[in-house]
Amino acid sequence: MRHATDHNLTLEERDKRFFFHPSTSISDLLANGPKIMDRAAGVRVTDIDGRSYIDAAGGLWCVNVGYGRQEIVEAITRQASRMAFYHSFSTMSNEPAILLAERVMGMVPEGMARVFFGNSGSDANDTNIKLVWYYNNLRGKPQKKKIISRRRAYHGVSIGGGSATGLPINHDHFDLPLPQFRHARPVDQYREKPEGMDEEGFAAMLAAELEAMIEAEGPETVAAFIAEPVMGTGGVLVPPRGYFERVRAICDRHDMLLIADEVICGFGRLGSMFGSVHYGFRPDLMTLAKGLSSGYQPISGSVVSERVWQVLEATAHTLPGFGHGYTYSAHPVCAAAALANLDILEREDLTANAARVGPYLRARMQAVLGGEEIVGDIRGEGLMIGVELVADRATKRAFDPALKVGPRTMKAGMARGILCRALPHRDVLAFSPPLILTEAEADEIVAALAGAVAQVRDELMAKGDWRPS
Q1: pLDDT band at 1 (very low <50, low <70, confident <90, very high)
Q2: pLDDT at 3
Q3: Which of 155, 255, 377, 416 is exposed most, by the fewest CB atoms within 10 A?
Q4: Beta strands 37-41 and 257-261, pairing class
Q5: Where are the domains of the chain?
Q6: Whether the domain at 42-65+349-462 and the domain at 71-347 fall into the same CATH topology
């Protein structure tokens, strides 16, 4: 039955009636309605009521060059006018995709061979997972299929990427993860590093646990390890020193591929072009998205190393073709947008700005909020920062999830003119503003956050839900 259009409905009413939102509480949406954004420029977004906010979340970790970049808009318009779409199946190609492939391959670490384009980080991780299985089948190792991720990892919500994800909300009621997936301990230095242990010791402990898991599963059955250089949605978790060096050595010992999920970390966010460069490790596959186009168009990339490509190329004559791809792989308009985005990123040296303003923002948060009774940890790298709220600083005791301290603080921040994200695991607020952020704008974020934290703390005390320890 078709729905008749009711022209008396407001936008909010139409949203609640017709729009199925991603990653949203259905009951909350139906009770309270949506927040509708209308326009954006620089680091600021404005809603339909005219209220302006600093987007301290960068959309979903993605608007690296900021909003309103006419250079990208014009590139999209030119390409859409010239040729809005053509597929890339069966040797077909287009100029923007070719130039983007060349551009990306000139930016990624040495040892990489080709880039496959998709639409989102989730599908790029699915591509990489399928490539791991394909690679081992071509090598005559059909039993080598298990993929190890980490608890609290986020690698998307598709079937493969969602299985690699290590968050219960993305598994429960979806029959995930698939049986080929395992999850190791996360790099949570705040909660999981034993008291008195230094970073190198924690890295050694995590590596030993990972290797023990591989040995228990049977190295002949384990194909790959997938990791975000800095874990994002799981809590903005920064790896301890020496961690990836040890992980790379383990993968080499056991003939495993190492997948670097650079969806958030890539294209400057950490103050280096890629997280794998930042932490000095060599990936076999890379997952790209978000900062590739700064969200101006949906595009992702799966970057394949020489190690993998040589197997694909050497066996290609035995197969009818590579049976994987998406309708919109290497979409010409998306590729044109990405090229213009990368022009801005490199010309304005936004990676260097992230390396400068990110530590400034984190230091200001520490100075203003470091003594706040419900702030347990402030952590991050570059312009990727997490603030963890706790009921007891001394014991690191978490708040009762029913109190929704993180989401409440996020809403209080919104009322003060900043947008951040309350993450799904514990009460962690994530900050990933556009890489054009200035120190003055960082100060605005900190002032608003301090006011939001104080408001929620006082509300908790007033209702008897929390008291100072």
Answers
A1: very low
A2: 59
A3: 255
A4: unpaired
A5: 42-65+349-462, 71-347
A6: no
pLDDT tens digit sequence for 175-211: 999 999 999 999 999 999 999 999 999 999 999 999 9
User: How would you class 22 by CB atoms within 10 Å of its CB: exposed for 0-12, middle for 13-18, buried for 19 or more?
Assistant: exposed
Q: Residues 28-35: contacts with CB within 8 Å, 24+ apart? A: 35/414
Is residue 453 a contact partner of residue 459, using CB atoms and an 8 Å limit? Answer: no
Answer yes or no: is pLDDT of 294 > 80.
Answer: yes
Q: Residue 148 pairs with which residues in a beta bridge?
A: 182, 225
Query: Which tokens hold the place of 82?
Result: 């010239």
Name the residue among 424, 61, 352, 420 with its Cα closest to residue 228: 61
SS3 category, 375: strand
Q: What is the mean pLDDT of residues 106-119?
A: 98
Topology adopted by domain 71-347: Aspartate Aminotransferase; domain 2 (3.40.640)
Q: Mean pLDDT, to the nearest integer, of 48-56?
A: 97
CA gap 230, 224 in Å, rounded: 18
Q: Tell me the β-bridge partners of 112.
A: 305
Q: Is the pTM of this model over 0.90?
A: yes
Query: Is the alpha carbon torsion for 68, 73, 74, 77 positive or negative?
Result: negative
Q: Which of 100, 48, 50 is nearest to 75 (CA)?
A: 100
Question: Does residue 4 register a pLDDT over 60?
Answer: no
pLDDT tens by residue, 177-187: 999 999 999 99
pLDDT digits (tens, 9 = 90+) for 215-233: 999 999 999 999 999 999 9
Which pLDDT does position 469 carry in this prediction? 81
Burial (CB < 10 A; 0-12, 13-18, 19+), residue 263, is buried
- Residues 183 and 222 sit within 8 Å (Cβ to Cβ): no
Q: In this structure, what token pair is assigned to residue 317? A: 């004559």
**Residue carrying the six token digits 């934290």:** 453
Tell me the three state secondary structure of residue 37.
strand
Domain 42-65+349-462 architecture = Alpha-Beta Complex (3.90)
* End-to-end CA gap in the chain: 58
Please state the φ and ψ torsions of residue 156, each to the nearest 5 degrees.
110, -175
Tokens 């039993």: give the residue: 143
- CA atoms of 460 and 274, how far apart (whole Å): 40
Model confidence at 6: pLDDT above 80: no
DSSP-assigned letter for residue 240: P
Q: Report the pLDDT value the prediction gives residue 2, as an integer from 0 to 100.
A: 58
Nearest to 174 by CA among 152, 158, 195, 193: 158
